Amino acid sequence: SEPDSDEVIPSSKFWKDSETRALFYFLAEHFDMYRKNKTKFYATAAIEIGNNRTSAQ
User: Band of the pLDDT at 19, cuts 50, 70, 90?
Assistant: First the structure.
């Protein structure tokens, strides 16, 4: 669900710059997987990037 406009989102939920960069690099290397099977891509990226992220994040 969408957060209320006055709801505070903990900073622990934000991706660090290094995590975002890693995701972009992973996407660049595995774009074919992303194009063909996004669910598999999300799961694999979550494992590769780590830092307690899930495929939903």
Answer: confident
| Prediction pTM value | 0.62
Structural domain tally of the chain?
Answer: 1
Angle, CA of 5, 20 and 33, to the nearest 5°: 110
Q: Is residue 5 part of a domain?
A: no
- Burial code of 33-52, b = ≥16 C-beta within 10 A, e = fewer? ebeeeeeebbebbbeebeee
Q: What share of the chain is helix, strand, coil (3-state, %, to 5)?
A: 60, 0, 40
Q: What is the C-alpha separation between 13 and 2, in angstroms, rounded?
A: 14
